[in-house]
Amino acid sequence: MVNVLEDYVDFPELRVPTHLVDSAVTVDQIASIAASTRAALGVPRGPIAHMIRTLEAAGVVVLTMPPESDVREVDAFSTDIGRRPLVLLSPFKDDKARSRFDAAHELGHLVMHPDVEPGSKIVEDQAHTFASQFLAPDNDLLPDLPEKADWEALLAAKRKWKISLRALIFRAHRLGLWSDATYLRANKRLSAEGLPERGPLGPREQPVAVGRAVAMLEEAGFGVDRLAAASQLPESIFRDVVLAGSEHRPVVSL
User: What confidence score (pLDDT) does residue 250 get?
Assistant: First the structure.
């Protein structure tokens, strides 16, 4: 379907770099890869305003997996088997911080593991590290991390960087600001509070590129029936994919 749409509209140029790594890659090396990826994607210094828009602007097609799919155990996955990479995100993780991390994690796979079978702990840990450094590079995040378990300061950092409290306390510990005991106490407190985490950032980010492309084509006289026929897909499936690549806003009823 994406290939058919590309016959009619120009998606953004694909700008995702490739930095293949092996099991010996270090955290510092992955941080450097994340920094160079930010530069390649034109991401300015500081927090990323919208992770999914960043992916779409770099030529990646992002979709939300259909709610009726049995995907509750899958946070996200990616593939580059077509003309351009695809990232698919879970519809069940309605949390902005966690869904942003999932999107950045899949970008890490596209950059570092385009031909690697997913699922191994080493590969997943590498993508985790990439996501952390891509969303909030150490040197930029460090001034916003408190030297003790100051929850107001942590919530302020969460609002600024749009990453979870769990991620922030992990970074505070890894960067040497917190002792093991402080880190363990903070983790226990978050675990006791459960999910959703305090300081919600709002609903998850959603894709728009596929939906906007089809809307443009409909305005130009290319109906969904014609596009579906060109893609050799049933119209119902074509519409489902359009929906998966569109933003859905809550409707206020009066």
Answer: 54
